[in-house]
Design a protein that fits this description.
The chain contains four helices and eight strands; from the N terminus they run E-E-H-H-E-E-E-E-H-E-E-H. By secondary structure, it is an alpha+beta fold. It has two domains: 140 residues, PH-domain like, CATH 2.30.29; 41 residues. The protein has a five-stranded antiparallel β-sheet. It has a three-stranded antiparallel β-sheet with strand order 6-7-8.
Length: 199
């Protein structure tokens, strides 16, 4: 395997036997140091690691990124309970809608995982069939963070990395975009530190 092939995308089937070893990352990490990673095995991070490769950040999108969906699901649930006291069938239908919205948020959040190692930045997506998109830290030429007033107050944001310096080069195919990253400023700082060490 070449260590300088640029960004790559690989799909593979999940090994059922590794289920007990799967890390239960829930969006909490300490990117400034070693966020519960250190010398994790490849199976625990669901990614084949290179020799002597170390995981620096291992996290998922924060639940705050799905706050609107979860709020809608909660409102539907309350409405469904209230309606069920008068009309059980309609109330049940509204509760199903609440479960569908909440389930959608759960699915979209838990199908994505972000890894930053001392060599690569990796986005893993999927459950049984997984797709990994990665780029080498030393190949990153541009890094951009983006937040809204709400996300900034909640401590999460989007990190985009590109292979070019131009601000217009952050589109699809030019790098990676990590959305809803908790403690995004610390994660971005961790990427910058690895860049300085690899160059």
């Amino acid at each position: 395997m070449s260590e300088r092939d640029g960004p790559s995308t690989v799909a593979y089937e999940e090994d059922p036997s590794s289920g007990d070893e799967r890390d239960s990352a829930d969006g909490r990490s300490s990117p400034g140091g070693s966020p519960g990673s250190g010398s994790r095995s490849a199976s625990s991070v669901e990614l084949p690691l290179l020799e002597d490769e170390e995981v620096i950040v291992d996290t998922r999108p924060t639940w705050w990124a799905w706050a609107v969906h979860l709020a809608i699901a909660g409102l539907f649930a309350l409405l469904g309970v209230a309606i069920a006291t008068q009309d059980l069938a309609v109330g049940f239908f509204v509760l199903v809608l609440a479960a569908a919205v909440g389930g959608y948020a759960w699915y979209r959040r838990n199908r994505v995982r972000y890894l930053v190692t001392d060599r690569r930045i990796v986005v893993i997506a999927g459950f049984s069939t997984k797709t990994t998109s990665e780029t080498w830290v030393e190949d990153v030429r541009g890094l951009r963070t983006k937040t809204t007033a709400f996300s900034r107050n909640q401590g999460y944001g989007t990190i985009s990395v590109s292979h070019a310096i131009s601000s217009g080069s952050f589109g699809w195919g030019n790098g990676l975009r990590l959305r809803g990253v908790p403690e995004f400023e610390s994660v971005a700082a961790a990427i910058r530190r690895q860049q300085s060490r690899r160059k």
